[in-house]
Amino acid sequence: MLVFVLRRILQTIPVIFGVTILVFLMIHLIPGDPAQIIAGEAASDAQVQQMRDRLGLNDHLLVQYGRFLGDIMQFDLGNSIRSGNPVSAEIGSRFWVTFELAFFSTLLSIFIGIIAGVISATKRHTFLDTSIMVIALFGLSMPNFWLGLMLIQYFALPPLQWFPVSGWGSIEHMVLPVITLGTAGAAIIARMTRSSMLEVINQDYIRTARAKGVKEQIVTYKHALRNALIPVVTVVGLQFGTLLGGTVLTETVFSINGLGRLVIDSINARDFPIVQGTVLVIALLFVLVNFLVDISYRFLNKRIELD
Amino acid sequence: MAETSVKTQQAETKPPSPQLENMKKVYKKLKKNKTAMVGGILILFFIIVSIIGPVLTPFDPDAQDYTNRLASPNADNWFGTDHHGRDIFTRIIHGTSITLYIGFSSVLLGSVAGTVIGIVSGYYGKKIDAILMRSMDVLLAFPGILLALAIVSILGGSLQNVIIAVAVFSIPVFARIVRGSTLAVKKLEYVDAVRALGASDFRIIFRHILPNIMSPIIVQATLRMATAILAASGLSFLGLGAQPPTPEWGAILSQGRNYMWDDPHYALFPGLAIVVVVLAFNLFGDGLRDALDPKTKG
Amino acid sequence: MEPSSNIIEVNDLRTSFFTEEAEVKAVDGVSFSVPSGKTLGIVGESGSGKSITSLSIMRLIQEPGQIVGGEINFKSDNLLDKSESEMRRIRGNEISMIFQEPMTSLNPVFTVGDQISEAYRIHQGLSKKQALQKSLEMLELVGIPSPKDRLKRYPHELSGGMRQRVMIAIALACKPELLIADEPTTALDVTIQAQILRLINNLQDELGMSVVLITHDLGVVAETCDYVAVMYAGKIVEYADVQTLFESPKHPYTVGLLSSLPRHDIDQEELQVIKGMVPSPTNMPEGCRFAPRCPFATDLCKEQLPTLDDLEDGNQVRCWVYSDKWDGDPEVNVKDDYGTATSS
């Protein structure tokens, strides 16, 4: 186990470097003169020159990357071009909003997804199973920004007006965005749980449990589900990452001041340090989540692997 | 007696190609799978609409009519009109080809690049494999549409850049699958035998490995169409993709958003169009996977 | 209880699997009984329906399978009339079962102790602590070394033989009156096979239970069983006490099975193997199901299915040779002539 963790860490290090290189290069991959583009078309030559100095674009690429990496180590992601504030502060003030949104959406997907998947598997080939799977497929096929708009249309606008149209903070604010962001994940987890359950339910140890006189519900929820959930763990991890990325659209729809909107606003304002910083933070967070998921999967799976 | 001998002779001179036989089997299975058929028919429907739809629609997708702004769905304007008085139904029909074009070209780009990387990685192994796969891990570290978003933010928002962004975002997925399949095929004995006969790497890859790994690539490409269309419409919705007045569905939706209070039809229909086309590819992809890979039967 | 009374009587049991195309009759009118305290062996090749028979007794047939007819009288109650919850009280309590695959028959995510305890907690309503104490006693009984430590182990930490002992511990936890053992030793090493069989035999004496032993291995039958039912293609073809079966087998299939066994008491030039294959259940022969492989088969055999008839010694056989209608050589002796009949 320890060997596995160490090997996994060794595998992760080059990925982290790769991510920093890619994020660093973002600004250099801009077609044309990045300083000119960031400063704006109307900027004078002097202003462009000033921008170039400010971004340190005159130095050798390696020097620039070294500086970039050094700054990251000290949690310094540069300053926003628009506001002049440190990028880390801008991100810090919005991070928890996005984290909450992604976290609760993940919880919702796990909860709904597992219940739906188990019901589907235990009632397989019935009308209920087919209905759940069709709904799941719809959930998977819906653009979440459209789902969000429709939820606003029918539950936040008159006549119902059950929830606020936008913003974040109270539970009422959270309901629609969390449903919006969690639906696709719930669909994926439901499908995964179903197929995993169907595989497990045919295992010999399920027959053993039945032969012991165990009630069918307990066979399903104790003996089968515990085994079936192990592969679902990987999906949940991936899902959390996808949600982090997906918050961009949800936050835009519900005007939530999280990282997603920060990215979009900054892209529109050509505030590249912020775009870079946010993308970097989200990617690193995703790498971390994947790392933890791999390790827990390995840990859970150890008992199952036949030696 | 004579008949049978003729038959056997035919069989000897012209053995039925195993791939053709396989395709027939797959088609048979696919035909049995109702959901896959629904998906396939829907895809066909969208393709037909994208080709002949624009000819049949009674309106010009760009014709503005300020006397008929934001009309609710009615007998003339089935899906209503937008804030410029344009017929939304017509615009959605015209947008079909854009959606399919973005989906198809980005998946094609992504799958070709991913397949090359995957085969090289799986076939040559060792250092090349390690480097390529770690690079794919780096790309995969940008979750969801974040990678596409980053690329579009660099290149600027346009239809073409959306295609590139979505293609790049598909590369690692294909690369991983192809690498896995390549490794499996490479292990087969006959590949060793062919190599012993002096076949070049190029020939082995194209004649022996590629045909054997087509199934997972096709399945993934179909499912990826769904993801690509979702991602591309998302980028357009954010204003980073196709720009108005292009009748791209995500872009229409993005404008409809401003009129939700009084005119819910404006945002409803382009979204429904996206749902149905994505659903079609998901249905067909699922069915294809069941037909091509009996192992993962649910 | 009188020694002659039967713990279980199966009458005309029929279990089918319903596929899109057809009804597959996996068990097709099987009848047998097990005298109290005795061991019945059910012998047959794979696909003969012997495992389905045992699962039918437990009422553990899963979709698309279904018990379509017959009676299973256990202590004078028909199990097929019981509700699911009544059946649950019987399973693992009065009738227990152990399976062929010890490697996969234990749940990988629960400890050995948990899995044995569960039986006590369900059927005897014991507390967790009491159940674990009882489980410990069971592990000692089935001869697992350092049982206290093993209680906390997960299945993947035990060897195949140890896992099968755990399975036996689970099955015998509530001291059942009937144990059904479905190929309990097939997946194990030869040396461990003997240990497990001896363990089952000893525990049978100790607990006074009856056993149904499902196997394809006649050697196992000879060592452990009192009575034998030979199954072929969903039907019983011969039923006899073990001594009679080995000394004077009646059915050509039984003779064939016996002659494919290596023997030490006589010189054998070569082992006989029954030619052909078990017929597919979707394509059963019209007459006797063994006719296509039987060296003695006549037109009668190919056209009409023989019944399972009682013989003078109380044993039963399903073969036209022993009936008045027999149209072949009246002097035929299935056991003695089998070798010459197959080689010709």
Automatic annotation (TrEMBL), chain A:
Its subcellular locations are:
Cell membrane
Report keywords, A-Z.
Cell membrane, Ion transport, Membrane, Nickel, Nickel transport, Transmembrane, Transmembrane helix, Transport
Q: Which CDD domains would you find in this protein's record?
A: TM_PBP2
Q: Per its UniProt record, what Pfam families does this chain match?
A: BPD_transp_1 (PF00528), BPD_transp_1_N (PF19300)
Q: What is its main location?
A: membrane
Say if the entry is tagged with keyword Transport: yes
What family, per the record?
Belongs to the binding-protein-dependent transport system permease family. OppBC subfamily.
Q: What is this protein called?
A: Nickel import system permease protein NikB
Give the species this sequence originates from: Texcoconibacillus texcoconensis
TrEMBL record, chain C:
Entry GO CC: plasma membrane
Citing just one GO molecular function, the answer is: ATP hydrolysis activity
Indicate where this protein resides in the cell. Answer: Cell membrane
**GO BP, one annotated term:** peptide transport
- List the keywords (alphabetical): ATP-binding, Cell membrane, Membrane, Nucleotide-binding, Transport
Where's the ABC transporter domain?
Answer: 8-258
What the entry lists under CDD domains is as follows: ABC_NikE_OppD_transporters
The record gives the membrane topology as:
Peripheral membrane protein
User: Coiled coil: which residue ranges?
Assistant: none
Q: Name one Pfam family in it.
A: oligo_HPY
Q: Which Gene3D superfamilies match?
A: P-loop containing nucleotide triphosphate hydrolases
Q: Which family does it belong to?
A: Belongs to the ABC transporter superfamily.
State what protein this is by name. Answer: Peptide/nickel transport system ATP-binding protein
